[in-house]
């Protein structure tokens, strides 16, 4: 049972790291990234091959995986981020599919469709969980910094953002770079949690699932993404029987969210001491909060 | 050998053209990538399959029925998914996300309902090819080519020669001004989705006849997108031209290099076009309007 819970904690932390990058890129900067799994695959294969075939230590492999994800995002992002969002969405989708095709066909290095077995695994999920929560806090601060506010301005109206002096291609490239870094890190951690990697682990379904986590929690809230990652990582474990209907429900849910409540679960609410205090006041001493509100 | 590859390229290119035209049509009016387009294609393909193999309907009737069926599904998606967003003037990102939601929903529903098997259409045309000198032309390829040629001609006549077509072009040119001129955008967009869905359904059926039908065949939309980008997003002649170029490149790549790297070549063309000619071969050079 503890191993089972450990597994869920691993998966949650890894998903959270990837979702944080995607929340910054798609939720806050407004660039629809369809190929998150491709960046995770780059990170996973970099780390997996460095530790297994070259014999590097685990931590160095994970760092290299994250860096590989970040570096690959530059040549993809530079030409496409300047254009309209549609190009970017398809370019990332094409990138992820191309990565999968290359991994499947370079048999002598990547083991083809069978993948790489016997990768060194991690001992405890605790460091991963701490790392994931640390990244959550960092992204929370980033989003409310000058850079983060520029990103929000770009999402709301790119032309207006350019007019007030925001260098939108540069800001978008930074978001994309951070997303690549986090996705590469998540991929590397996934490789060292599962112990083997295959191209099919990084298909379209993975990218879609991650983007759904961002949309479901609220595209304008990092905390929303955190909550939806908790819910959508543990829910499939609880509802094993209905697993084939899961993606059908997700798809329908995404449409309903867009039509009825595009701000998602939490809207733009964030977890912060002040907001928690406001909830506390609302629940327990209503009069005081009403007075404060006025 | 080269002539043979050209024939194959024309055949697959004409299927891509059917898909890309609908994609470009929706793009030209609503300015977003309809990722659910591929799932409409899949639905059309399955409709054609069941009409032909289970109900044993004659081929032309099956063709017409799956076209109309896919068109109605596309209209329903527009009515329930995109129209509320459009009336709220939601950003393009929301349209794309809703489209992705429909795509995930329909694809996985199809996997459950139709089971994840590859299905082969019943044999409609004899397999013996027509030989012209060195070149062998499959009868099915010929039928596919002419069906798409005819339907693309009818579509372009409709768009460039009729009153409703003029309304569609006006709406594509400027949505708000068109609605001031007495054009009902709801009706126009409904018809655009019907046309796009119909051509997608037809394309799906032709693709199913040439290869197979399976629930995740909607991934073909990415080919349609590449074709539309190469020709210029939003331009219908561009979409057709781009499709034939893509068909040629793919058959030549799988003929002379390796079929497993075929898709890499398609992505490479798209990246090259995006970097050097972002508005495509025939697209207008438009910047985003505020």
Secondary structure elements and pairings:
The complex is a heterodimer of chains A (294) and B (290).
Chain A: H1 2-28, H2 36-54, H3 58-81, H4 85-105, H5 107-110, H6 126-143, H7 146-156, H8 158-163, H9 168-194, H10 204-217, H11 222-238, H12 243-260, H13 273-284, H14 286-293
Helix pairs in contact in A: 1-6, 1-9, 1-10, 1-11, 2-3, 2-4, 2-9, 3-4, 3-9, 7-9, 10-11, 10-12, 13-14
Chain B: H1 2-30, H2 37-53, H3 59-87, H4 92-114, E1 130-132, E2 135-137, H5 139-161, H6 163-173, H7 175-180, H8 185-210, H9 221-231, H10 236-256, H11 262-276
Antiparallel strand pairs in B: 1-2
Helix pairs in contact in B: 1-5, 1-8, 1-9, 1-10, 2-3, 2-4, 2-8, 3-4, 3-8, 5-6, 5-8, 6-8, 9-10, 9-11, 10-11
Rg for CA atoms of chain B: 19 Å
Q: What does the average pLDDT of chain A come to?
A: 87
CATH topology of chain A: ABC transporter involved in vitamin B12 uptake, BtuC
Q: Beta-strand percentage of chain B?
A: under 5%
Characterize the main sheet of chain A: none
- Shape summary of chain B: globular
Structural class of chain A: mainly alpha
Number of strands of chain A: 0
Look at the structure and give the CATH class of chain A: Mainly Alpha
Sequence of secondary-structure elements of chain A: HHHHHHHHHHHHHH
The low-pLDDT segments of chain A are: none
How would you spell out the order of helices and strands of chain B? HHHHEEHHHHHHH
Percent of residues in helices of chain A: over 70%
Q: What does this 3D model show about the protein?
A:
The complex is a heterodimer of chains A (294) and B (290). Chain A has 14 helices and no strands. Chain A has 294 residues and is an all-alpha fold. Chain A has one domain: ABC transporter involved in vitamin B12 uptake, BtuC (Orthogonal Bundle). The longest helix of chain A has 27 residues. Chain B has one domain. Chain B is 73% helix and 2% strand. In chain B, helix 2 runs parallel beside helix 4. The longest helix of chain B has 29 residues. The relative contact order of chain B is 0.20. At the A-B interface, helix 4, helix 8, helix 10 and helix 12 of A face helix 3, helix 4, helix 9 and helix 11 of B.
